[in-house]
Every structure is written in structure tokens, then in C-alpha cells.
């Protein structure tokens, strides 16, 4: 697995004590929040974006992993739910529209939020866009803390490239 150190990271050693969004936003246009798309051809679309889901015949679908850098602690039985959210571009202004939660983890108890930056505590495969849905331009994570707050802990998250599974090949191949 490969984690891009610049563009595709949504959180880098981000401290989470209460519900918060990721410090970074992934922009499929590569321009950044607040920057309208200027290289449009043909009919201009108010919902510019890229379908990150699905991958292709020779590529795996995009993965997103959340890694714990420093173990989480809490005075009680705090839990963390991680939500993958997406938003369309508002009339090509570079401003995210309404953030929709497209996937989420279950509630992860504090006892499972240990510092292990080599394995993700949760991961997502970015889903395909359904017919009739607008292409999201922006992606972020929302960290929902319940029965909290946490007293310590930080994490990193981002889009991954490469397949994290060991492929199985038949003999003589």
C-alpha cells in the first residue's frame, strides 16, 4: 500500500477529542477549495468532479485508510465513528455544497484505538456513483465521538494506492 504524502491525505496526526471533520479535503479537480474549474470544454457543468469509485479493469477501486498514530484515551467508554463524506461543487465556485455521508464505520471503542500506524483501524472502498447522481468534487472525513470526550489520541487518514491483499495465483503462472 502506498500513501501519498501530499495531495491525498485528509488528516495528518490530527488530534481528536470531540466530533470534528478532517483537516484536509480531497478535491478531484486538484485545485483546492475555493478555486473554480477553468479548463472546462463543451457544456459547463455546475457539478464538476470525478467518479473515484469503481477503479477499472486493471486497477483496484480507490481505498481510504484511517491509522492511529497515538493511542486514544478517555475517562469513560468513548467511541469513534468515521464517516466518508462527499460534496458537489456549488455552481463551479470551488465551494463544496452539502456534505453527504456516503459510508461510515461502526462505533469503534476506545480500547481498539491503539497506536498502530501500520494497520488501518478502519478503511473504505470509495463506492461507485449511481446513475442520476452528481459527481462529487470534494471528499472529507467526519470523526464522530460518542460518550466522549477523548482525553488524548491522534490519527492520520488518506487515500491509498496499491492493493493491500496478497494475490493468489494458480500453479505455473
Task: State mean pLDDT (0 to 100 scale).
Answer: 79
Q: What is the string of helix and strand elements?
A: EEEEEEEEEEE
Kindly provide the radius of gyration, computed on alpha-carbon positions and rounded to a whole number of angstroms.
Answer: 18 Å
Second rung of CATH, namely the architecture: Sandwich
Range of strand content: 35-45%
| CATH fold annotation | Jelly Rolls
Tally of separate helices: 0
Instruction: Provide the low-confidence segments as ranges.
Output: none
What structural category arises from helix and sheet content?
Answer: mainly beta
Number of domains: 1
Helix content: under 10%
* Global geometry: globular
- What profile does the largest beta sheet have? 6 strands, antiparallel
Keywords:
single chain, 173 residues, mainly beta, Jelly Rolls, six-stranded antiparallel sheet, five-stranded antiparallel sheet, 11 strands, 38% strand
What does this structure look like?
This protein has 173 residues and is an all-beta fold. The chain has one domain (2-28, 49-161): Jelly Rolls (Sandwich). Helices cover 0% and strands 38% of the residues. The protein contains no helices and 11 strands. The chain has strands spanning 2-3, 9-15, 20-21, 26-27, 63-74, 79-87, 100-104, 108-109, 122-125, 138-146, 150-161. The strands form 2 sheets. Strands 3, 4, 6, 7, 8 and 10 form a 6-stranded antiparallel β-sheet that branches. Strands 1, 2, 5, 9 and 11 form a 5-stranded antiparallel β-sheet that branches. It is globular. The two termini are 23 Å apart. The relative contact order is 0.34. The model has no long low-confidence stretch (mean pLDDT 79).
